[in-house]
Structures are given as C-alpha cells and as structure tokens.
Design goal:
By secondary structure, the chain is mainly beta. It is built from 8 helices and 41 strands. 9% of the residues lie in helices and 27% in strands. A 5-stranded mixed sheet has the order 1-35-36-37-38, with no helix packed on it. The chain has a 4-stranded antiparallel sheet with strand order 2-41-40-39, with no helix packed on it. Helix 5 packs across helix 6.
Length: 724
C-alpha cells in the first residue's frame, strides 16, 4: 500500500490496522537507514515526511540528497546528489549550496505510466525545482534546463533574482501540473508569494495566481497604495496544499505580507495575505477566498496546510476545507462555495499607537470551535511550579510592564505579549483527520513571545567609522536579540539557548569544516538565512562586509573605512520608522531565567476535536523537559511536525525535542507506546504496508530549530513476525 500523506486531501489518515491499540506496545525496530552528513554542531535537520510508492521509500538526508530505499528492508536503491546549485544573475539572498537553508519537508511523486515516474523536489537553498527519474535516480534533462527550473524565473517581478526565494514544503500534482508555493524573506524588501503551476514534463509555467493582486485583479483595491504590488512581498503559500481532484480545486493557506511587524507602507487589508484560497487547479483562477487576519502585524501566517474533510451539518454531509491557525482558531468552509460552515464574527480590536501604522478595526473570530490554545494571558497564567520564587517574581515584573489585555494588541514601544507566539498554536506539521469518526487531531505550542519596537534613528552610520565599528553597531541592531550582546547566546543566557554562539566561528578557528566561516560563506549565510535565522535582505553589501569583519574579526578589512555612505537613498516604501528592539526577532520568547516558557504548563500538547460537534474530546501534554519531568511535572514542549492517525485506533507522533516517538489511543488520548529514537523526530511520520506487513517510519534529524543533537537516521518500526 502506498503512502502519500493520506491522499491529496492531506489528512494523514491510514486505513491500515495490523498495528493497533492491543499490540502497539510490541513494536520493534524493523530497519534503520543512516543517510549520512548530519552536522556535528546541531545545525542540520531532516524535517522530511517520506513517501512510499510501490514498495519504494523516497526521502532526503540532512544535506537534501534524495534517496530511494526498499521500504521493507531499508536497503538503498539509489541516491541523487544535486551538488552545487547553479547560479544565475545576482547572488543576493541565495548563495551557494553549502551555506544555504537546508529545509525540505518532503518530495512530490508523479506517475505518468510505467516508464514515466518522477520525483520533483527543491534541494539546497530551495530556489531550484529538480525533476528526477523515480526508478533510476537520474535527472530528467528534458525538464526545464538540464532537469531543473529556477523559481526566481517567471514570477512577474522585475528584480526577483535579487531576492530570497526557496521552497520548504512539497508541491502537489494535478494531472500534468505541479503546483508550487514558496518560502521568502520577511523583511521589507522581499519577493511576492505568487502560486504557480508548471508542466511536469517540460517545466514550463502554465499559470500564476498573484497573491498580491495586480491592477485590474480582484483584491487590488484592498491595498491603499496603487503600486504596492511592485514592492510588497510575502503572502506566500509555504505550508503546502490540498487538492479536491474531483472538483479540480487546489487549496492553500497564505502567509503575511512584508515586513511582518510594521505595515505603515502596506496600508489596507492586504489581500491575499493570511488567506485561505480555493483556485481552479487547471487555470489558477480564483474560485473563492477568506482572509483570517486583516493587515497582519503579528506574523500569524498560515503555517499549517489546509485539509479536506466531510462533516455533518443539520444532519447532512458537507464537503469542507479546514484551516487551523497560529492563533489557535479552527476555520471551516464549504469546499465549493467558500461559505463558512458556522458563523465567523468580526470582532473590534485595539489600534496601533505607532506613528504611520494602519490597523484593521476588526478581526475574524470563529464562533463554533473554541480556541485550542490560550490566547489572552493574565497573571494567573504565569509559571510558578518548578521554578524558584525569585524567577517567578522576575517574570511577574516583566509581565506587568507589557501590554497584555488583548491578544490582538499590535507591536508597541512599550512591549506587547503575543500569545500564541510566532511558533503557534498550529505549526507546519498541520492537523490530522480521521474520516471514519470526524475527529481532527492537533499538536500545538503554547509559548508566548514579546514584541517590543524601537524607533529607527537615521544617521547612525557615519563615514568616519571603520568596518569593525560599523559591524559592531549592525550586530547590536540586527543580531544581539538572538545571539546576545556578547555573541555567546545560550552559553551565557538560557533565554537564548535555542541559538548558537557566534564566538570563534572564523575560518582560522579550531572548529571542524562546516562549523567555521570565511568572509564569503558568512555573507552568503546572512543573505540566505538558515534554520530559524531569517535572511537579512535589508542589509547592503557594504553592511554585510562590515558585519563579517566584526563577527569574524577579519584583520584585512576591519580597520578599513566603512564605505556605505548612504549616498543611494533607499526607496520610501522600504524605509520603516521602527524595528524590533535588540534585533529582527526583538526580545523573542517570554522565558524564565531558567529558559522555560514563562506560562503554566503544558507548553505543547496533542488534542482531539470532533468537527461535527465542535467539542474537544481530550488533550494530552506532548513532550517533556527533563528538569520538569524529574519534579513530576508533565510539561509538554514546543513541537514541530505532524501526526498520523490509523484505522488501528492509533495516533503516531514524534515532533518533540526530547527524542521520543509516541503512539496515543485515538479515542481516549492514553499514551500506549513511547520509544527513544536516535535524534528528535522533527518531522511527520509515515505509515505503510509492504508484502502484508505494516510499518511506521520517522526521520530522526533533530538539530535545526530545536537546537538538539542532529541526526541522519530513518527508523522503521513493525510488529514481530509472529504477531502480525
């Protein structure tokens, strides 16, 4: 039996029941595959949800080499190495393969018949879409140029090649088309997130949907500036798609318009950012849309993909699309018309007090489903258990200094608590749905963040500065919020434990290859971003040189005059009067001195919601912090990656940083099975069957965003032969 994410509905349901509630405790390792090339510094990961077709498993290693395995034994059939990513035009925001962002959560399979089976995926920095023969592992040269196309091309934007464009979630196949989204920079100067379809045989673009509408297109009127489509980026479908093949409709959830946290240069509701879109899969024409956040100022983009379900309304079945959100909301619409299945209210929200900002007077709030995470926090929500009173008093003092009275409070100079934070609520793993019961399963995060803005002071860079002096100033403005004022991050500040130290990373250090940088590789890194670090597209070439001279202590250039004299005036639409205090991610997570989320547990959980009744059936903490577990506290933890639900009565999920893989009873939420895996499984598992034997497999990549030990193994579990 094949596994393709539970079908085009993207519900991650398996009808297999050989492994069930009565025997799951007997699961054993069936095989392991060490795919190689994990980082010794915990900077690589494998977020891949592998797919299984005709007994062959396709997945990616930490360096995004594509492989095919015998799904019954883990034996390698072939490995494809993309090598260096071809460059074209300017290098800004992309960089060579080595330091590029290595995130790819899956691959796409196309079946054109016995002799035409293809894997399409985006390796390396993710701006090249490759087409590989699924049987041989060889590039198909008739696709695009020598087997690949550049996603910078045909984006209907003049300077697209100067900007960061990649793709982290697999596209989806409709007939002979592959439909693709994108991952983009989130700074003021960013590419637009237009959705495109390409011919799977030739690579030619067949259609494009402008997520930031052009003149004459519906939605253009929601932008006050008539030229916004020329310079505003984002509104990208980075979390994946679902497809109603019978109706020929493809569904996407889009991200925020850029820049994320200040919208004074993009006034208006900003369609089609933060929207659920239903498009004609053959033509890209808009069927319907619904915007879940107007003029987003919180980075509440749609990280999770929409799913297609059938529910009962007034006793009758209704085909619906469901979108869960970072805010903790569940939106549900008629799949064909876009009408809400249940009422959605437009609720008045606070207005921004930042000069020049525009705030939507209302925001949409579903009425039928209760939020699946906490939203507005009070002092009663602050953490006391498991920490010293001095730590509690510290977070209480900070909490009282921030704006906390409304979840829709915009970013502010005072500092605003954002709950849920930028990591959700819902994240990119997405929900799981059991069509036999109508129950949806959601793994979610509850870790608040702080948004504190500061005014951007003009003229801080003066001609008499050296590169080193300018770099030091740039570091404090852009990097210290994540890596600390001393560049040591978690070494000296537990609140920054998720971020690496930047001390001693120059090429003349004693670090291993891949852990150190010269000027070129460092500048490429900050141009393209990596893991949780965004691209710094707003920095000029001279500013990147200055930053490199400071962080790497480059003797050859650090005493040279800083040459960025600001002679070229930045366009007004890229100038923002505010930035985050302490760096692009501001103060960041709201944490205790010990590095724990500053709110009561659970900080991560798995829950079951009946989509027919709206009731939450159960909720269980997901993941553990060892320090809390030792005190008898089931804390839960941030989790990334989805679950799989089976006809055998089980929900399988890894997703947590504690290097555990778990199975829960789908009816009761009882934990039935838990096993230690080689590294954290920050990915969605796959369930499949070969030769009558059922398996469940998880990519154990760790590292990356969770800053845990990096791994390279795929581990498959099955029942002993005698218990099948």
């Amino acid at each position: 039996m094949d596994n393709l994410r539970g079908g085009s509905e993207n519900i991650k349901y398996s009808a297999l029941d050989q492994i069930n509630t009565s025997n799951v405790k007997n699961l054993k390792v069936a095989w392991e595959y060490a795919s190689g090339e994990a980082s010794a510094t915990n900077t690589t990961d494998m977020k891949t949800n592998p797919i299984i077709v005709n007994g062959i498993m396709y997945g990616l290693n930490p360096q995004l080499k594509l492989f095919a395995l015998d799904a019954a034994t883990g034996t390698v059939k072939w490995v494809y190495d993309p090598g260096s990513i071809p460059e074209k035009g300017k290098n800004v925001g992309r960089g060579p393969f080595g330091p590029s962002t290595k995130i790819c959560r899956g691959v796409t399979y196309y079946n054109g018949g016995k002799n035409d089976q293809r894997i399409l995926y985006t390796p390396g920095g993710g701006h090249m879409l490759y087409c590989i023969n699924a049987l041989t592992g060889k590039v198909i040269p008739t696709f695009g140029t020598n087997g690949h196309i550049d996603l910078h091309d045909e984006l209907d934007m003049e300077n697209a090649h100067d900007l960061h464009i990649s793709n982290t979630s697999p596209g989806i196949i409709y007939k002979n088309l592959i439909i693709m989204g994108s991952r983009l920079a989130e700074s003021a100067e960013a590419a637009p997130g237009h959705i495109r379809a390409f011919d799977v045989h030739t690579g030619k673009r067949k259609w494009i949907f402008h997520t930031i509408p052009h003149p004459g297109e519906p939605g253009y009127e929601t932008w006050e500036s008539p030229g916004a489509y020329k310079y505003v980026g984002g509104a990208n479908a980075w979390g994946g798609f679902s497809l109603d093949e019978k109706r020929g409709l493809v569904f996407a959830g889009t991200g925020s318009a850029t820049p994320d946290f200040y919208g004074g240069n993009r006034k208006g509701n900003n369609l089609y950012a933060n929207s659920i879109l239903a498009l004609d899969a053959a033509t890209g024409k808009l069927k319907w849309h619904y915007q879940t956040v107007h003029h987003d100022l919180w980075d509440w983009d749609h990280a999770a993909h929409p799913i297609l379900v059938t529910v009962k309304k007034d006793g009758k079945p209704v085909d619906a699309v469901v979108q869960i959100t970072k805010q903790g909301y569940i939106f549900m619409f008629n799949r064909e018309t876009g009408d809400p299945i249940h009422p959605i209210n437009e609720v008045p929200v606070p207005k921004s007090d930042l000069a020049g900002e525009w705030t939507s007077p209302t925001q949409p709030v579903p009425s039928f489903f209760k939020p699946f995470v906490r939203q507005r926090l009070t002092e009663d929500d602050l953490l006391k258990e498991g920490i010293p009173d001095s730590s509690y008093q510290d977070i209480l003092k900070k909490f009282r200094s921030y704006k906390t009275d409304n979840m829709w409070n915009p970013p502010s100079l005072q500092g605003t608590i954002e709950s849920p934070g930028w990591n959700g609520g819902a994240e990119w793993g997405g929900p799981t749905f059991d069509p036999t019961s109508g129950i949806m399963y959601i793994n979610a995060n509850e870790s608040p963040w702080v948004m504190k803005m500061q005014e951007v002071k003009k003229g801080e860079m003066i001609a008499k500065q050296t590169n080193f002096e300018a770099g030091q100033m740039l570091y404090q403005q852009n990097c210290s919020g994540c890596h600390g004022k001393d560049r040591r991050a978690g070494e000296t500040n537990k609140a920054l434990s998720a971020n690496p130290s930047l001390v001693g990373i120059a090429e003349n250090s004693n670090l291993k290859p891949g852990q150190k940088y010269d000027e070129r590789s460092f500048k490429s890194l900050i141009s393209s971003g990596r893991n949780n670090m965004p691209p710094f597209g707003h920095l000029s070439a001279e500013q990147k040189t200055a930053l490199a001279s400071f962080i790497l202590n480059l003797d050859k250039i650090k005493d040279q005059p800083f040459k960025d004299l600001n002679t070229k005036e930045e366009p007004a639409h890229f100038r923002t009067p505010y930035s985050f205090a302490g760096g692009p991610y501001g103060i960041g997570k709201f944490l205790t001195k010990e590095g724990f989320p500053a709110v009561k547990t659970p900080w991560g959980h798995l829950s079951a919601v009946d989509l027919n009744t709206g009731k939450e059936l159960w909720k269980q903490p997901l993941g553990d912090y060892p320090e809390m577990k030792a005190k008898g506290i089931r804390s839960g933890s941030e989790n990334f990656g989805g679950s799989v639900v089976t006809a055998g009565g089980l929900v399988f999920i890894a997703a947590t940083r504690d290097e555990k893989f778990r199975a829960f009873d789908k009816k009761t939420g009882e934990l039935l099975w838990e096993v230690k895996i080689p590294a954290a499984g920050i990915a969605t598992p796959a369930v499949y069957q070969v030769n009558g034997k059922q398996f469940v497999v998880i990519a154990c990549g760790g590292g990356g965003k969770q800053r845990t030990k990096s791994g390279d193994k795929y581990v498959a579990f099955a029942l002993p032969t005698s218990q099948k």
